[in-house]
Design goal:
It is built from 2 helices and 18 strands. By secondary structure, it is mainly beta.
Length: 298
């Protein structure tokens, strides 16, 4: 992972806060949607300035959203009631405390536009790939080298350590294969972190999509309490864990960037239930981005 000085604002919902000067906006809670119609959140409007909107989620977390990434309806809503410049409270993190994180991607394993048919399949659009994002200074992949356990204690191919070895390559010898059906892998981050982003790569040597992908975070290693769901693409509850609104997507060398939602967790667990090519479950790499707990405590 390379870390570069900040140059661009985050292109999707972020758990970061940027201090700005001006007059606060009146509270306005509503459901906000992104321009692509893939994600939505219920949040209270805090402020807007210079093309950046600050929203306060129901759990109190403040997120920053580039105005251009919001739906047309949300942009019109803001334009209709926008006062002169707006501001965030003083306790927000200043922009100087941010840095740009660029993700290192493996080489592509197939060429062309993949065609995979499934009820909630996301339309393949390379332009929506996330390759970098803004994060608090000191953010690193806190999952690298951490212990991995699984519902399949004896993987068919590979070792569980491959999930956090820092290598997202899809070639033979770079992935772990679990038994058919509903299975999970779990990473012990070693300490409780405030999660900012996750990057996930399933097997991407051929065009395919993994089914019922559910990603959770918790401080409970058994995931019986205090569980935050970060992603759920189980559209019909076939895994009996509740219906999800996230799309099923084609696996590529770009993986999938998942919002951490500001969850405070020591463990992350990733479920899947086979894929569109066969019933097996595969992982190449999982990265979890956060400021290490010992640094955040200073």
């Amino acid at each position: 992972m390379r870390i570069h000085p900040p140059r661009l604002l985050l292109k999707s919902l972020s758990v970061l806060c940027i201090g700005m000067a001006g007059v606060p906006l009146p509270a306005a809670e509503r459901v906000w949607k992104d321009a692509g119609g893939q994600h939505e959140i219920r949040a209270e409007l805090v402020s807007q300035k210079g093309g950046v909107v600050l929203l306060k989620r129901e759990n109190g977390l403040i997120i920053t959203v580039p105005l251009a990434t919001l739906s047309r309806e949300d942009q019109e809503f803001l334009a209709a009631g926008r006062p002169p410049e707006a501001a965030a409270p003083r306790e927000f993190v200043l922009s100087g405390d941010l840095e740009e994180i660029r993700i290192e991607f493996p080489k592509p394993m197939f060429i062309g536009t993949p065609l995979v048919d499934f009820p909630n399949m996301e339309k393949f659009d390379p332009s929506k790939r996330i390759t970098r994002f803004m994060a608090l200074k000191g953010t690193v992949n806190v999952a690298k080298g951490k212990k991995v356990t699984s519902s399949d204690a004896a993987p068919i191919i590979g070792e569980l350590a491959l999930v956090t070895d820092g290598d997202a390559d899809g070639a033979d010898g770079s992935f772990v294969e679990l038994m058919p059906g509903k299975q999970w892998v779990q990473i012990d981050l070693g300490a409780t972190h405030t999660l900012q982003k996750m990057a996930v790569w399933h097997y991407h040597k051929q065009a395919g999509a993994y089914l019922d992908v559910i990603i959770q975070a918790s401080n409970d290693p058994e995931f019986k309490q205090g569980v935050t769901t970060l992603w759920n693409s189980d559209h019909d509850d076939s895994s009996n864990m509740g219906k999800g609104k996230d799309p099923t997507y084609v696996e590529t060398s770009f993986g999938r960037i998942i919002e951490g939602k500001g969850a405070k967790a020591r463990y992350v667990r990733l479920w899947s239930n086979g894929n569109t090519n066969n019933d097996m479950n595969h992982y190449c790499e999982v990265q979890v981005f956060a400021v290490p707990e010992q640094k955040a405590a200073k």
